[in-house]
Write a structure and sequence with these properties.
Mean pLDDT: 90
Radius of gyration: 21 Å
Low-confidence stretches: none
């Protein structure tokens, strides 16, 4: 199958031949199809929107930003998996006019939701206008008419997986955790640690202390370390949450990478809460105690 940059159009200048599918607007609402899907997921609509004012403002142009990012990142992963196992993750109808993939989401009856698409056809009034190759036709459970009328009942598309190594999901407390690598991330650290006007030394001291305390927290509660699939690097890593210096109810997170040679975890960067959620949601719905933007 052809490789695409994204599932749907992500920015105004994006060429349509890099976009997998068009999601039709309904009464001028370009997010209507995504909102329909959010409503039928077992998570419920509210799980796919931001609740903190700063993130609502940041993503004010879209209705369900969590869901759209989840679908696009999942699609990207499925493309990678499909390259090695053709026909396992994207299933075509017998005539090739439709294609589908497993979103990894379920409805309230715990049935998988399969995203289905139909071959796009040029507008007869403007046949030279660029179009995507596919058009979204809905998400259906395998028993629904929208799926079974077009696709085989045996051989459902498999959902995305991210690692078969159990070590990728849990912090190994026998490994060391680096705490002296902040030089390349001070601008980000100051902003996300709630210390925009602090000196580099003050930020360094705060982050070192946070990391030292974190290992003890992980030993008491392994769920503190959140497994994520970092799309940019196409690999599993872990998130370690930490509270803002200026507001203990605000969180950011360290993205860390396991180094088996040196038996330590190295800090890659610092994520804001929305970035952390997008990466973590690919693996599971994150714990709302802290990762709840």
């Amino acid at each position: 199958m052809k490789q695409y940059e994204s599932l749907f159009k992500r920015y105004r200048e994006q060429e349509l031949d890099t976009v997998f599918a068009h999601f039709p607007a309904v009464a001028g609402d370009y997010d209507a199809k995504f909102k329909e899907l959010a409503n039928i997921t077992s998570d419920g609509y509210d799980q796919w929107i931001f609740h903190q004012p700063r993130f609502i403002q940041k993503y004010h142009r879209t209705s369900v930003p969590k869901l759209k990012n989840y679908l696009d990142y999942t699609f990207t992963r499925l493309q990678d998996l499909e390259r090695d196992n053709s026909g396992k993750y994207f299933v075509f109808s017998s005539d090739g006019s439709r294609v589908c993939f497993n979103t990894g989401l379920q409805n309230s009856n715990q049935s998988d939701l399969i995203a289905t698409f139909q071959k796009a056809t040029p507008n007869p009034l403007d046949p030279n206008k660029p179009i995507t190759e596919w058009v979204y036709r809905g998400c259906w459970a395998p028993i629904d008419y929208g799926y079974r009328n077009h696709f085989p009942q045996d051989g459902l598309p498999e959902f995305a997986w991210y690692s078969t190594d159990s070590r990728d999901y849990v912090f190994d407390t026998s490994y060391k955790l680096d705490s002296d690598v902040f030089d390349h991330m001070f601008v980000r650290a100051k902003e996300r640690a709630g210390m925009p006007n602090a000196s580099d030394d003050a930020v360094r001291i705060y982050l070192r202390g946070t990391l030292q305390d974190m290992v003890f927290e992980i030993r008491r509660n392994y769920k503190v370390a959140i497994p994520v699939y970092y799309v940019n690097e196409k690999r599993m890593q872990l998130l370690l949450p930490f509270p803002s210096f200026s507001d203990k109810n605000e969180y950011a997170s360290f993205l860390i990478d396991r180094d088996d040679t040196s038996k330590r975890y190295r800090i890659k960067t610092i994520f804001d809460l929305d970035q952390a959620y997008f990466s973590a949601r690919l693996i599971t719905r994150p714990d709302r105690d802290w990762l709840n933007p």
